[in-house]
TrEMBL record:
Basic and acidic residues: bias regions: 51-64, 93-106
Domain Rho RNA-BD: 170-245
Protein name: Transcription termination factor Rho
One Gene Ontology term of the molecular function aspect: ATP binding
Length: 382
């Protein structure tokens, strides 16, 4: 492998020989610095070819060069006979070579006049080719100057350039919309009970107006990584709103304008995964879709266990219902037990949190239930 310092110390003819061995195109028309950079680029692109070419070149250099045999001419006295000359000529056939060369020179002289005219024509065509090559070199130099200015580096031929990847619309995320007072909003994550977290996704004010989004909408969309100066992952594409297409949700009727009715469809909580408590409740206090109820009893009598059995019975017998279990001011152990044993979304705010967080979580859960009802889903909040 050649280094740039070694190549700069060599002459142009030596560089041309190296370029010829590496089969670099148009190496004779390049200047010294350009030829140095071409050799370095060829080495970076073909490291194996250069390593294989070097030992071959060394092997050729190590071969002894054929030495020219000097002809020894002996001076003879002037009185030698013609027979001696004939014998000397027969003994030394190499002496005929200079005479043959002289005859060839005399024969080539009349041909030089004809070749001179052809050489003039070739010179004219060669000048045209040189002009074209110079024009191409000027274009290539102009392109290289542009690259150097863009990268801020004068010598970046052999340096690795990181490819430009686009990570837009690769990550797909989902969250519940929480709108701020300034008009923009964030998609809150269910992993943090819909409170502010590092997983929040920024939703611009124009997107909220375009799709008619409201507080509590469950939005599924594509996001991109934050740029310099940005703190959150911004939402760039909306795929689903509350499980439906954005075109359908745009024309929905708001929850305040829906007609309230008495329950018409009953929840079957006495069939699959039922207990004695759920069977008795199904007999004496049945519940249905669109009904409100409250369990009142003394402490430590099993209210939480009864809610757990009811939730499992509804999840087993009515899979079309979206079920949310809201636990406010509860113990962390009960929250963990509910998350492990109930098939449904558990949103909790334990007693170690402040009151305004309890209110915020309860508010966003109610808004989410309203948005799901507006889109035609059945929702149960326990």
């Amino acid at each position: 492998m050649f280094e740039i310092s070694q190549l700069k110390e060599k002459k142009l003819s030596e560089l041309q020989e190296i370029a010829k061995e590496l089969s670099i195109p148009k190496y004779r028309s390049l200047k010294k610095l350009d030829l140095v950079y071409q050799i370095l680029d060829h080495q970076a692109a073909n490291p194996k070819a250069t390593t294989e070419a070097k030992p071959e070149a060394k092997a050729e250099d190590n071969k002894p060069k054929p030495k020219r045999q000097r002809q020894r001419v002996q001076k003879k006295p002037a009185n030698t006979s013609n027979t001696d000359k004939a014998e000397a000529n027969a003994a030394k056939p190499t002496e005929d070579k200079p005479q043959a060369k002289k005859e060839e020179q005399t024969q080539s002289k009349p041909q030089n006049n004809n070749n001179s005219n052809n050489s003039n024509n070739n010179n004219n065509s060669g000048n045209n080719n040189n002009n074209q090559q110079k024009h191409r070199q000027h274009k290539n130099q102009h392109k290289n100057q542009k690259n150097n200015v863009d990268n801020g580096n004068k010598d970046n031929r052999n340096r690795y350039r990181e490819p430009d990847f686009e990570f837009d619309a690769i990550i797909e995320s989902e969250g519940v919309l929480d709108i701020m007072q300034d008009g923009y909003g964030f998609l809150r994550s269910s992993d943090y009970n819909y409170l502010s977290s590092p997983d929040d996704i920024y939703v611009s004010q124009s997107q909220i107006r375009l799709f008619g989004l409201k507080k509590g909408d469950t939005v599924l969309g594509n996001v991109r990584p934050p740029k310099e100066g940005e703190k959150y992952f911004p939402l760039i594409k909306v795929n689903r709103i509350n499980g439906q297409k954005p075109e359908v949700v745009r024309d929905r009727v708001s929850f305040e304008h829906l007609t309230p009715l008495f329950p018409r469809e009953k929840f079957n909580i006495a069939e699959k995964q039922s207990t004695i408590s759920t069977r008795i409740m199904d007999l004496f206090a049945p519940i249905g879709k669109g009904q409100r109820g409250m369990i009142v009893s003394q402490p430590k009598t099993g209210k939480t266990m009864l809610l757990k059995d009811v939730a499992n019975a509804i999840a087993a017998n009515h899979p079309e219902v979206y079920q949310m279990i809201l636990l406010i001011d509860e113990r962390p152990e009960e929250v963990t037990d509910m998350q492990r044993n109930v098939r449904g979304e558990v949103i909790a705010s334990t007693f170690d949190k402040e009151a305004h967080e309890h209110v915020k979580i309860a508010d966003i859960v109610l808004e989410k239930a309203k948005r799901l009802v507006e889109c035609g889903h059945d929702v149960v909040i326990l």
